[in-house]
């Protein structure tokens, strides 16, 4: 089933066009990887999906992005509601400089998802368990989140993102700052999470895209060159640009 | 290969090296088949001995290719065309090695053959062999040129070889029936014929690999087969 | 070729050595000046924290004071102490003529009558008895006792007469002169008499000014900084404002004094010489400093924190108030304290708005006239009496101490809270 459908999406930074006519359907409960060289627009596209580009004054998004039969680029779309439904995990682990507990409880508290302390405790526990972090941190929930290792911090950020039960999780190069073991833990986590969430991951590592995703989209110079099943893209891509990129021939 | 070279030059060189090793190996196999055939026709035991000796070279190349492939997979993690290149190299090399073995077997038997074989027998044998040689040559060219069309041609040509083999076998069987004295030579000839046919089969395998290498897809449908062979078995 | 290279290398090393030498000597020079300055201040100023007392026997004779045997508290307050005070001074030399008696009287501060009165009020049982009482010595004798006053000058050029010196030396011999910690320097307001002058009024004036300044400047500056940094669109107008805030920080302080004079006093008719006006004027000066500090520390909050909050569905306001502002607070606070420390040391604008007036009462609120510490230094430095010289240094010491404590506080805030989250 198609969860997100982007139709003719153009993005401009001032006068410079960053994305050209992107058409991409994202399947529900699958991991979709977006790959491409730096500056190709994959992160820009990802940030269109939860309207994080709004923060940038000069950024303009045109076209339709339909999630649950609703165009999020409509004027009537409430960004706060949208971001509750679409969580995001960033390149660098960015836990709030607060305690672990506060990190997780922040989202549910601003969205009024817990009526009591007990409910909140439950949400925190479930989120941490889903993020495979509970066992490591259950005894120090009230210590600062910045005291964790990089991989743990990133899993904390994932726990924070899933605390509001989003339907979609966007991940912007979530492992680029992590060592291989921490990366493997995150990848395993992504595999688990896709049962309940639709995941879109931007990654520089093609091996990672190949490992975690079911579908892959290749961006180049602001265009979506090719998208399709991951094994097809990595074994036998249709487009020579895609092939040149994933085999390391890019000039 | 794609037009653009790899960003990492040593990777590019490793792939080229692998490629050229396969081509060299193919060249040796061609030579072996040609010499083995000539040895039968011209009764030149020198040729036969060269083939037997040179098989070592082919075996060495196979080991070399295998090592290169393992290295590439372990160290370069090839993707897409490079992945197919690597994997097919491994498979082609093992087919070529078998071809080398079969040529060697032919030569061994040639040394034991009677000097005066009936002309019709040798002619039939040469017909099969030269067809297989042609197949082998064109599939190596196809590999070099990355031509899927040529690969398909070779693949389809196997049917004709099977037919020729059957004809040749019938001749040999006739020759066997003629005289009990012919029993030794006839049996050897049967195996020689069968070996040449097997070389044709391996050539067809290579054709399948080349097709996969170029297109990323497998050749669909049953492998072309000639009329049911009368005699089976090898070595 | 090789030789050339070696030459170059030697040149490189020697130029680095030269540079290091220059840097070290610059630091040495600065330290030398600082040491000299501090030595000068301390060597002249430390005596101000001591005060010379003359111990004089006083006879609390009820009759002379027109009191009956059992006076009420009001009676004691209203009684005439002048006569017994004078008498006790005259008793130091029973043979003194009228001129000498006058000189005797001037050996203590004009305050001596009140000191005697206070003694009796504290202990009414002294009535009719004689007790030795500590009386503040005149500023000149104070200086003599501290050794700051040259005795070998001809009498005409001295403010202390030979006769006064004779009596004083007698008292010293009898052990009737004592030096004690000068509490009155901290508790007394300003006075024309150096021995009675204290920094209480200017200290309180400074405190009130700084409080007013803080109350006005801090919220305004922080709100302005948050709006400009987090909410305002980036366009020419906001650029213009930013440039002007930076310019404002560079405006000479006396200009702010004129502003205070022209607007606060002339237009709004606020009371002159008060910490209220002083504080408002100083807040104008401090405003850009705090805005700049606050904006800088808001900028220093990593954008990833903002993104994290926004991506969680927090509104812009929530992101700012829950995350950015708390994180920027250590920087803002230390910037504020440094701004206030600057304001504390400011003299020129306060002189313009009249805080230079002589104030001999301790202000109880920002609406009362007051001086401030730097202005006090200025006033005393202008005074002729020798007794004020040490007071100037002492006042500078107090001001410096104040500033050092504030800066220390700023440092502590910065280190303690910033480290935790970095």
Poorly predicted sequence stretches spanning 5 or more consecutive residues of chain A:
none
Per CATH, the class of the domain at 2-95 and 167-246 in chain A reads Alpha Beta
Oligomer: heterotrimer
| Whole-number mean pLDDT of chain A | 90
Biggest sheet character of chain B: none
CATH architecture of chain B: Up-down Bundle
Question: Helix coverage percent of residues of chain B?
Answer: over 70%
Strand order of the largest sheet of chain A: 6-7-8-3-9-10
Number of strands of chain B: 0
| CATH H-level superfamily title of the domain at 2-95 and 167-246 in chain A | P-loop containing nucleotide triphosphate hydrolases
Distance from first to last alpha carbon of chain A: 37 Å
Derived from helix and strand composition plus strand pairing, the structural class of chain A reads alpha/beta
CATH class term of chain B? Mainly Alpha
Low-confidence sequence ranges of chain B: 229-235
CATH architecture of the domain at 2-95 and 167-246 in chain A: 3-Layer(aba) Sandwich
CATH superfamily of chain B: Phosphate transport system protein phou homolog 2, domain 2
How many discrete domains of chain B?
1
Shape of chain A: globular
The shape of chain B, in one word, is elongated
Structural class of chain B: mainly alpha
Topology:
The complex is a heterotrimer of chains A (251), B (235) and C (422).
Chain A: E1 2-13, E2 16-27, E3 31-35, H1 42-49, E4 59-67, E5 70-71, H2 79-85, E6 86-89, H3 100-110, H4 117-130, H5 134-137, H6 150-162, E7 168-172, H7 180-193, E8 198-202, H8 206-212, E9 215-220, E10 223-229, H9 230-235, H10 240-246
Parallel strand pairs in A: 3-8, 3-9, 6-7, 7-8
Antiparallel strand pairs in A: 1-2, 1-4, 4-5, 9-10
Chain B: H1 9-42, H2 45-76, H3 80-112, H4 119-145, H5 148-178, H6 183-215
Chain C: H1 2-45, E1 50-59, H2 73-78, H3 82-90, H4 98-105, H5 112-122, E2 130-136, H6 139-145, H7 162-173, E3 177-181, H8 184-187, H9 200-231, H10 236-250, H11 253-265, H12 275-300, H13 303-311, H14 316-344, H15 348-352, H16 373-382, H17 387-421
Antiparallel strand pairs in C: 1-2, 1-3
């Amino acid at each position: 089933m198609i969860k997100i459908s982007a139709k003719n999406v153009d993005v401009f930074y001032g006068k410079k066009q960053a994305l050209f006519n992107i058409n991409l359907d994202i399947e529900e409960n699958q991991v979709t990887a977006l790959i491409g060289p730096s500056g190709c627009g994959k992160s820009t596209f990802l940030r269109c999906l939860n309207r994080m580009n709004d923060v940038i004054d000069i950024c303009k998004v045109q076209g339709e992005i339909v999630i649950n039969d609703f165009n999020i680029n409509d004027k009537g779309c409430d960004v706060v509601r949208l971001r509750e439904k679409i969580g995001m995990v960033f390149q660098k682990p960015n836990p709030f400089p607060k305690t672990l507990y506060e990190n997780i409880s922040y989202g549910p508290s601003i969205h009024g998802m817990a009526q009591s302390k007990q409910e909140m405790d439950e949400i925190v526990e479930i989120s941490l368990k889903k993020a495979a972090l509970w066992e490591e941190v259950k005894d120090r929930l009230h210590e600062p989140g910045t005291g964790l290792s990089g991989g743990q911090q990133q899993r904390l950020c994932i726990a924070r993102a899933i605390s509001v039960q989003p339907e979609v999780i966007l991940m912007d190069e979530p492992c680029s700052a992590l060592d291989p073991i921490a990366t493997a833990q995150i990848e395993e986590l992504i595999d688990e999470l896709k049962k309940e969430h639709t995941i879109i991951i931007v990654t520089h590592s093609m091996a990672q895209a190949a490992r975690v995703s079911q579908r892959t989209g290749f961006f180049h110079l602001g265009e979506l060159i090719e998208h399709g099943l991951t094994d097809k893209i990595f074994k036998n891509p249709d487009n020579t640009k895609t092939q040149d990129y994933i085999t390391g021939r890019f000039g | 290969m794609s037009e653009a070279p790899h960003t990492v030059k040593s990777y590019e060189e490793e792939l080229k090296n692998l490629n050229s090793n396969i081509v060299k190996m193919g060249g040796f196999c061609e030579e072996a088949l040609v010499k083995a055939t000539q040895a039968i026709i011209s009764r030149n035991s020198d040729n036969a001995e060269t083939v037997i000796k040179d098989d070592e070279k082919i075996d060495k190349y196979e080991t070399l290719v295998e090592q290169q492939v393992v290295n590439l997979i372990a160290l370069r993690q090839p993707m897409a065309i490079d992945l197919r290149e690597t994997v097919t190299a491994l498979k082609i090399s093992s087919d070529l090695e078998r071809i080398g073995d079969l040529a060697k077997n032919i030569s061994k038997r040639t040394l034991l053959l009677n000097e005066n074989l009936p002309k019709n027998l040798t002619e039939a044998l040469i017909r099969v062999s030269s067809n297989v040689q042609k197949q082998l040559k064109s599939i190596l060219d196809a590999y070099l040129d990355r031509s899927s069309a040529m690969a398909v041609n070779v693949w389809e040509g196997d049917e004709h070889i099977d037919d020729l083999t059957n004809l040749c076998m019938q001749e040999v069987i006739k020759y066997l029936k003629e005289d009990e004295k012919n029993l030794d030579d006839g049996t050897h000839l049967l195996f020689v014929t069968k070996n040449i046919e097997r070389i044709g089969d391996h050539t067809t395998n290579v054709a399948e690999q080349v097709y996969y290498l170029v297109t990323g897809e497998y050749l669909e449908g049953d492998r072309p087969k000639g009329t049911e062979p009368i005699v089976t078995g090898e070595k | 070729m090789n030789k050339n290279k070696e030459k170059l290398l030697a040149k490189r090393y020697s130029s680095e050595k030269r540079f290091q030498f220059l840097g070290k000597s610059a630091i040495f020079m600065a330290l030398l000046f600082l040491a000299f300055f501090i030595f000068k201040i301390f060597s002249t100023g430390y005596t101000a924290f001591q005060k010379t007392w003359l111990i004089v026997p006083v006879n609390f004779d009820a009759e002379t004071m027109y009191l009956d045997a059992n006076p009420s508290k009001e009676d004691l307050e209203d009684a005439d102490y002048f006569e017994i005070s004078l008498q006790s001074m005259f008793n130091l030399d029973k043979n003194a003529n009228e001129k000498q008696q006058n000189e005797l009287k001037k050996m203590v501060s004009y305050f001596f009558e009140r000191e005697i009165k206070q003694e009796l009020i504290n202990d009414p049982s002294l009535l009719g008895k004689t007790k030795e009482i500590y009386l503040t010595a005149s500023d000149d004798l104070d200086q003599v006792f501290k050794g700051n006053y040259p005795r070998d000058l001809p009498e005409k050029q001295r403010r202390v007469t030979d006769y006064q010196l004779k009596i004083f030396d007698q008292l010293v011999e009898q052990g009737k002169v004592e030096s004690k910690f000068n509490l009155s320097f901290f508790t007394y307001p300003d006075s024309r008499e150096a021995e009675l002058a204290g920094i209480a009024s200017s200290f309180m004036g400074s405190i009130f000014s700084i409080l007013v300044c803080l109350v006005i400047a801090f919220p305004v500056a922080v709100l302005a900084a948050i709006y400009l940094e987090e909410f305002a669109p980036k366009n020419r107008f906001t650029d213009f404002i930013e440039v002007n805030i930076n310019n404002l920080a560079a405006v000479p302080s006396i200009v702010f004094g004129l502003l205070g004079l022209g607007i606060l006093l002339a237009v709004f008719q606020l009371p002159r010489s008060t910490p209220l006006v002083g504080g408002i004027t100083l807040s104008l000066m401090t405003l850009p400093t705090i805005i700049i500090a606050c904006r800088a520390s808001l900028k220093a909050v990593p954008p990833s924190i903002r993104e994290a909050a926004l991506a969680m569905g927090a509104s812009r306001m929530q992101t700012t108030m829950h995350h950015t502002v708390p994180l920027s607070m250590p920087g803002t606070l230390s910037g504020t304290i440094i701004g206030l420390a600057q304001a504390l040391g400011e003299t020129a604008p306060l002189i313009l708005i009249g805080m230079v007036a002589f104030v001999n009462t301790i202000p109880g609120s920002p609406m009362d006239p007051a001086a401030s510490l730097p202005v006090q230094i200025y006033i005393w430095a202008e005074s002729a009496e020798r007794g004020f010289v040490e007071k100037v240094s002492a006042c500078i010491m107090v001001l410096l101490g104040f500033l050092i404590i504030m800066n220390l506080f700023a440092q502590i805030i910065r280190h303690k809270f910033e480290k935790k989250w970095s």
